[in-house]
């Protein structure tokens, strides 16, 4: 049997652990895996694009465990009453090739994206950052707010979305946490939201080269968490922001980011730093209080590997295990047909029309 976590399963696990604690624990797992960056067989995700969106497979392995995620991104789905992003994933044993876990990753992707964003900001944002702008208040926004409040003690959230109902939804959901002393400020524009912010997360979904942030909106010392530009032809930052002499760009896996991230707008030789090199001490993080740091986040398979490994541990720790009969179990592994022969009657006579002459 293969362990299985569906929507009800992830709800039970997160309820048991607590959403903020789950995110911080996942961030710790991601950091531990990034610190052993060279152990992993890494590749760009395989993407199939259409005018409506993209479907991707994201594989990775450290030689002991293998994982992949199936994920889509269809920005117009909400107009049909559907989610923009859905996902599931598999964690498998490399030695036997047997899957260990089949899990939903729709909710978990939102949790791991927030965990990765906050983890990067711990290393790249100013330590005294207390105000954050959330540009795009859709499905990812609550997770970002929880992660940044819990892990970086953000006290003021400045909110903007072209859909005011999305902002109202975000404020309503966050008020339920009753965080003492935390302010939520709906704003009338991106420019208003980023004014005075120490950290800016861009979380938009349009599959186009958009300009959500322009150079005049960026102040010295800001940390930009660019999440929404995550496939070819999809960006959020004006290219002049990346060219700022006081800015440095950090990425997850450089070959993938050059195809999909904000740096797809840049020439091939444009300098970036892989986040793993910061954690490993091979490259510096933030250099000064006035430096602009940009985390060009597209989502990388290592983060989903960490999430699946974390879920596999938690579902056993909290006795939340469910199983699915995905792999047959046979007395004789060379006799696969026995699985059918033991449960069905094999016709003793040829089918009509196929009898011998």
Give an overview of the whole structure.
It comes from Polaromonas aquatica. InterPro entries: NAD(P)-bd_dom_sf, ODC_Mu_crystall, ODC_N. The protein has 357 residues and is α/β, with parallel strands linked by helices. The protein has two domains: 2-107 and 303-324, ornithine cyclodeaminase, domain 1; 126-299, 3-Layer(aba) Sandwich (Rossmann fold), CATH 3.40.50. Helices cover 31% and strands 24% of the residues. The protein contains eleven helices and 17 strands. It has helices at residues 7-17, 19-34, 106-124, 141-152, 164-175, 190-194, 239-242, 254-260, 275-279, 301-317, 338-341, and strands at residues 2-5, 46-50, 53-61, 65-73, 87-93, 99-104, 131-135, 156-160, 183-186, 199-202, 209-213, 223-226, 235-237, 247-251, 273-274, 292-296, 322-324. The longest helix is centred in the N-terminal third of the chain and has 19 residues, at 106-124.
